[in-house]
Design goal:
The structure is a single chain. 92% of the residues lie in helices and 0% in strands. Helix 3 (92-117) runs antiparallel to helix 4 (123-149). It has 4 helices and no strands. The protein has 2 domains: 1-83; 84-149. Keywords: Coiled coil, Signal. Residues 1-19 form the signal peptide. This is Outer membrane efflux protein. Residues 57-84 form a coiled coil.
Length: 150
Amino acid sequence: MKGTLLFYLCLSLPLAIMAQIPVTDVATNASVGMVNSQLTSMNIQLKVVNKNLVRLINLMEKNNNDTSKSRKILKEELEAKKEAPAYVTGSTDVAMTIELKSKILEAYRSSKNTVQKLEYLQRRETQEFLGFAAQAILETKICSSNAMKS
């Protein structure tokens, strides 16, 4: 009996080992299936991230181009504001103002020379005249600047 039991045990042992192989294959296949599913999910997520990155890069390039154009336009506007346009400097009002300014400066210089030559004026009176004349010229300069701006 021990002999037959041992005989059957020796015969059934390879069967037990063989029976274990399909169970292991099923578990491995299930594990491979799960990993495959996870990889597919990660692949989809990476495609979405790549699509978003491409969109972000395109938007950044557009922003860079717009900023460059804006900077160029602002530079041109600043250069234009530094100089008065030709139609302003060539207008009759500005020409008359510039002519008036030169006449006033000429009158100031001649008056200054005349006042300095007068011996009977006191120094305080001479200084007072020069102060009033300088103030008048300053006001004329301000008026001519305003006329050129408008």
